[in-house]
Specification:
Layout lengths: L3 E2 L2 E3 L2 E3 L4 E5 L6 E6 L3 H13 L1 H6 L2 H17 L1 H12 L3 H21 L5 E5 L9 E9 L3 E4 L7 H13 L3 E4 L6 H10 L9 E3 L4 H4 L1 H4 L5 E5 L2 H10 L4 E5 L5 E4 L6 H12 L11 E5 H16 L19 H16 L3 E4 L3 E2 L2 E2 L2 E4 L6 H4 L6 E7 L2 H9 L3 E2 L1 E5 L3 H10 L4 E4 L15 E2 L2 E2 L4 H7 L1 E9 L2
Length: 475
Amino acid sequence: MFPETFPAYCAGHFIETLQKLEVRNPYNGEVVGKTFLAGPAKLENAITSALNTREPMRLLDSFRRYEALMYIASGIENMKQLFAETICRESAKPIRYALAEVDRSIQTFRVAAEESRRLPGEYLSLDWTPAGAGKEAWVKHFPVGVVAGIAPFNFPLNLAVHKIAPAIAAGCPIILKPSTSTPLSTLLLARIISEAGLPKGAVSILPMDRATGNALVTDSRLSLLSFTGSPVVGWKMKAAAGRKKVVLELGGNAGVIISAIPDIEEALNKCITGAFSYSGQVCIHTQLIYVLKAIFNEFASRFVAKTTVLKTGDPMDPATDISVMIDEENACRVESWVLEAVEGGAEILCGGRRNGGFYEPTVVTNTKPGMNVCCSEIFGPVVVIEPVESIRDAVGQINQGCFGLQAGIFTDSLAEMNYAFEHLEAGGVIVNDVPTFRVDHMPYGGIKNSGLGREGVRYAMFDMLEPKLLVRNKY
């Protein structure tokens, strides 16, 4: 099957252009697929078609949206292994994590199908004051218009689906730009979408270079921009987006607190997964672990022991825990940040070596808050582990950072749980699990430098709908 040609999907048609794009496996450099970059003319075609599709999409009955979304979910399920292998090869994500991503994508479409049948609405009695005597109101939500979606490399299928599925459920046409590093799984998805019975132009999936794709940000005909990526890029996009709605999911340096729980084994295992799954290239990667002093030495030593036995190697091997990063450039960046920390007095407890695009799973301690490994999003297989005097101390350490996506706490104390929930500055607080936890129907997003708005199908749909008020006489 590999390598294969994957045409771009423009306004309901599969297209090829003169700008060919080879997608290579980060693990071995092999070409795993070929596609095509859409230029300004093709993007204009997609935008024009999407604008013309606004009314057919708005008028599409709920049961037809439901059927289309369920058809797509079933189509992915029928091709589950192919999707997983495509993700694995284009991103070097270990195959077991790729399979989990496909399962989540199926679930996301199923959730969207259910939500398409329960769009929000409200009845209001207006006679609370004399001015409203004899009047009542209805609030109905209408599709906002054309959605522009820009998806990242790290969850090439599911994070794209988190833009496509809510748009279909809300009745909005969408143009999606996948990462040029990992466009193949979304173009494979386009084959299923093309058969789902949606109006032509309802969905376009176009690999584009950054210059062409920037029109998704600046074009005033598009009503909403949904971007997942880095803070530097995201906030620039918001500034350039004009009057359109903007939803940003910009990642973070997620922290987890380990209290004096009776059995730390479950916390250890979950923290290992949160720290090193997909080489830490996850927005809610467990980056900072704060452990009460009373159990710090035991926790740190056992954490290091578990880290050193992680299986590294070929992502297609079902036993592989950790493989290469998306490219050597990012591996070099991670290496430089760890070296910077060591020069500043930090200690490497294990790992710390790079071989091409592979960076060893690494544990660092004795850090300072201003070091990049602490205050920036490392987006790599590195975790900082530090002792703290109290839960309040740990919460303060997490809050002093510029991110606020999710945080976790392991505790058997109701008081500690409540304190963490009330005081942690984050979009979500996860109890007795790592901040890396996510299911696809929960509200997901952050504060501070972690973004703006929320994903999670129902919550993404809120931004893709506009309320309209009808006031009428009761009698």
